[in-house]
Amino acid sequence: MPGTAQGVHRDTAEGHRHARSERLILIAGFALALCALFLFAWLAEQVGKGETVRFDSVVRSEIHIHASAPLTSFMKFVTLLGSGPSMTFLTAMTVALCYWLGRVHYAKLLAVAMLGGLTLELALKLAFHRPRPVPFFDIVPPASYSFPSGHALESFCFFSAVAILLSDGATFKNAAAAWTCAMIFTSLIGFSRIYLGVHYPSDVVAGYTVGILWMMTVYLVQKVHRRNIREERSG
To answer: What is the mean pLDDT of each run of 10 residues along the chain (235 residues)?
Structure first.
């Protein structure tokens, strides 16, 4: 209704600017998700044909020759941060905090992001059945399949969801800081899997592409959902 605060806001120049920016975000997000989908499809095809063998071997060897005891200890700590139990604990704590702060919407977003990410990880691992590489440092390889990397996928889902939460209503500088920290943590976790030799580099790249695809889907759906709610309330 025109008399409501929401209706007045939508009729202002600022309101129209915000509406345009939302549409641009939706379009850009859809384009990014589409690119991620094509990249994963291409990468999956290359892995299936064995075309990534040379790439994986060169990257693994190049990283391994720079190994050191302190770096190995740090990478083991980082990879533990991205493990299933750690991600489960961090997700549960963040969801509980969101509920306590009254941010129920973001608690639901995080729960959906993580559950969907886990489902995608398990389904894709079973679909591709890619064996693990021989790990470095006498590490016992995980029992699960290799493609895609669950650490990369799940950490991307978690930290990007947290970045979305922290960016809501924040200044550009603070939002950029939140996303920078999220990408640093996610990149370190993915790199640790290659460094320790428990994943091929292509596994990690695939994990990130699936994470991007899934999180953009979640983000776009929640943006449309919130916009529809605002329009219903203003109508």
So the answer is: 41 59 68 82 88 93 94 96 94 94 88 92 92 90 91 96 88 92 96 96 95 88 70 62
Angle between helices 201-234 and 104-128 (to 10 degrees): 140
Q: Amino acid identity, residue 110?
A: L
CB 117 within 8 Å of CB 151: no
Q: How far apart are CA 28 and CA 147, in angstroms?
A: 28
Q: Look at the pTM and tell me if it is higher than 0.90.
A: no
Helices 53-64 and 201-234: crossing angle in degrees, nearest 10, is: 100
What burial letters (b/e) apply to 154-193, b meaning 16+ CB within 10 Å? bbbbbbbbbbbbbbeeeeeeebeebbeebeebbbbbbbbb
Quick check: helix, strand or coil at residue 146?
Answer: coil
The residue type of 49 is K
Model confidence over 86-105: pLDDT tens digits? 999 999 999 999 999 888 88
